[in-house]
Amino acid sequence: MLAPRTYEVKTFGCQMNVHDSERLRGSLEEAGYVEAVDDAPDVIVINTCAVRENADQKLYGHLGHLARTKREREGFQIAVGGCLAQKDRSTILEKAPWVDVVFGTHNLGSLPALLERSRHNGEAEVEILEALEVFPSTLPTKRESTYAGWVSISVGCNNTCTFCIVPSLRGKERDRRPGEILAEVQALVDDGAIEVTLLGQNVNSYGVEFGDRLAFGKLLRAAGEIDGLERIRFTSPHPAAFTDDVIDAMAETDAVMPQLHMPLQSGSDRVLRAMRRSYRSAKFLGILDRVRERIPHAAITTDIIVGFPGETEEDFAETLRVVEQARFASAFTFQYSIRPGTPAATMPDQVPKEVVQERFERLVALQDHISFDENRRQVGRTAEVLVSVGEGKKDAETHRLTGRAEDNRLVHFSPGGLTGADAPRPGDVVTVEITHAAPFHLIADAEPLGLRRTRAGDAWDRAQADSCGVPATASATAPGGPVSLGLPTLRVAG
Ligand code: SF4
């Protein structure tokens, strides 16, 4: 019997893309492919991102390296999908004619057929659809984590932020029906997950397609009823559409975690107007106040763009003012750079690179200072840490384990007496007292206060046993083990 063809999926960009990659893996495995365990896969799939800076340079650089492998290895195939593929289409083949398949954001499920067709016909296949034919969540999914999963509630976006390429690449917002979403959440829980992140470009407008403006709050409450689901997170909300019913649903649903990622983008009302973001800084800060009133320990994170066209020193000072007031736990900070195809790309008054750099450094310094301060306030608190895999890069050296607190803060903790058969497994929950703070993580070096072995930990054990044929004695420190990071991560750009 022929050995099954192996694949590797490389993902660039946001959580949407990471989740799409889970679907790509699912579709490939359903078609008989297996994930490569070495660095010589038969098929490499690059799931691209058009949002981040220099995305095309990165892609073409990467494809340049693969040209040699393509020449040297018989049967090796390269597929390029995702946002950049949706945007560049056949340009990809003009620039890198050794690519075998180009597919878009709307036809992830066609990948195995396109690979097969390309192999059979001996020529490249390009298939880009303008609209979604099957909601991506109905595709088979191979989840990266046993204890946490992502569920799409919508795709596309009806907003027109002038810096953003998403509306033109992902199309208008399409909402999944609540019943379908809840069924998927239930299926994840049945498989052992105890945490779910609901995903959409703009989760607060969820329901617009079927005419229910309160649909997102209702969805949070309904998900909170699912037995066994302990942690619900969501990303991303939009300040313009963030209504009090959602804050109520967050506060009144035990499983919704005390955490909110709320993109600010700029603190200047003038710049927000130019970005075509319809909230203003006062409204933004008002939302944060109301969230903190109802959920006092909520960790609020954000996205900020520095150097949007026309941003003056006064505008930037407004961003610093809002950042000071907002007391974000952390921030993704971006330097504005031109994205061809977006309205902002052709705006006059593009800010010189060195000015953007200098403002960016001031913003990062301020936010790092606030993050550290906010983290110091956690010292002495008790946190329930959901043990994860792959997030503690130095765990082996420091003899700690790593996981996420309820508010999604990263916690490295000493397992103390929890070793051997008592060691916590990924997916188990360890209660710790925070003993030290750093700008981007917390440390808990005292003896853990408790360990709760969960269904997710059992599922991790089962997955280990399935993948290597022996029951695992679990240790969350196993670097590069077969289960990789599944929790949504917060990254602080510096
Ligand atoms: S809300 Fe704005 S930034 Fe977010 S996806 Fe829609 S257009 Fe892009």
UniProtKB/TrEMBL annotation:
Q: State the top-level EC class.
A: transferase
Q: What does the note under cofactor report?
A: Binds 2 [4Fe-4S] clusters. One cluster is coordinated with 3 cysteines and an exchangeable S-adenosyl-L-methionine.
Compartments, as annotated in UniProt? Cytoplasm
Annotated MTTase N-terminal domain ranges read 5-120
Which stretches make up the Radical SAM core domain?
143-373
Q: Its domain of life?
A: Bacteria
- The residues that the entry says bind [4Fe-4S] cluster 1 are 14, 49, 83
Q: A GO CC term? A: cytosol
Kindly list the cofactors needed.
[4Fe-4S] cluster
Domain TRAM positions: 376-448
What keywords does the record list, in alphabetical order?
A: 4Fe-4S, Cytoplasm, Iron, Iron-sulfur, Metal-binding, S-adenosyl-L-methionine, Transferase, tRNA processing
GO molecular function term, any single one: tRNA-2-methylthio-N(6)-dimethylallyladenosine(37) synthase activity
The residues the record assigns to binding [4Fe-4S] cluster 2 are 157, 161, 164
Question: EC number(s) on record?
Answer: 2.8.4.3
Q: Fetch the Pfam families from UniProt.
A: Radical_SAM, UPF0004
Q: Which reaction does it catalyse?
A: N(6)-dimethylallyladenosine(37) in tRNA + (sulfur carrier)-SH + AH2 + 2 S-adenosyl-L-methionine = 2-methylsulfanyl-N(6)-dimethylallyladenosine(37) in tRNA + (sulfur carrier)-H + 5'-deoxyadenosine + L-methionine + A + S-adenosyl-L-homocysteine + 2 H(+)
Principal localization?
cytoplasm
Among InterPro entries, the record links this protein to: Elp3/MiaA/NifB-like_rSAM, Methylthiotransferase, Methylthiotransferase_CS, Methylthiotransferase_N, Methylthiotransferase_N_sf, MiaB_methiolase, rSAM, rSAM_horseshoe
Q: Which PROSITE patterns match?
A: MTTASE_N (PS51449), MTTASE_RADICAL (PS01278), RADICAL_SAM (PS51918), TRAM (PS50926)
Which HAMAP family does the annotation name? tRNA_metthiotr_MiaB
The protein's assembly and partners: Monomer.
**Into which family does the record put it?**
Belongs to the methylthiotransferase family. MiaB subfamily.
Q: Which NCBIfam families match?
A: miaB-methiolase, MiaB/RimO family radical SAM methylthiotransferase
The protein's name in its UniProt record: tRNA-2-methylthio-N(6)-dimethylallyladenosine synthase
Source species, please? Agrococcus carbonis
